[in-house]
Amino acid sequence: MNYIRKAPLSVLLFIFFVTTFILFSFLPVRLDFSKGGAYTLSPATKKTIRSINKLVEITLYISTDLPTKIIPLKTDVIELLQEYRRSGKNIKVTVIDPKKDSKIAEKIKQQGIPELQFSQLEQNKYQTSSFYFGIVLSSNDKREVIPQVSDYQ
Q1: 26, CA 20 to 30 Å: which among 17, 86, 105, 133?
Q2: What are the residue ranges spanned by the domains of the chain?
Q3: Domain DUF7088, which positions (predicted)?
Q4: Of 28, 138, 120, whose CA–CA distance to 71 is shortest?
Q5: Displacement of CA 122 from its chain's centroid (Å)
Q6: Per-residue pLDDT for the chain (153 aa), expressed as one digit of tens each?
């Protein structure tokens, strides 16, 4: 009998949480509960991004088949770039896998983004894999290249 009384309340709570999640997913707001707001742009960074009056294109060249140890860094970088895009109307972010198109791979090598090698121990064997993880920032005729994104923690 008690179960029958709690069922409608449970259904209502479920509907409330799903609706809230759907509504908040469309808002350009991200909540950062990390210590010290580690994943939140500083007010100075947001101000700088908002003051950009020309289109800045940020292209992340990254392979989809990354070594396991690199995947968390990929997630952090993509989230940071998306935060930049949300903070400024003149920021365009594109993510491209150069391994899917040999012409793009050749183009970015000429721009200074190398194909990286990574060795790791998997199933008692050393596995070597190659991948791309670089960024090109461009605005008008200016271009800056970050040949290799890495974590220096």
Answers
A1: 133
A2: 34-146
A3: 37-137
A4: 120
A5: 26
A6: 455 566 777 888 889 888 887 877 666 566 666 676 667 788 899 899 999 999 999 999 999 988 888 899 999 899 899 999 988 899 999 999 999 999 999 999 999 999 998 887 777 888 888 999 999 999 998 999 999 998 755
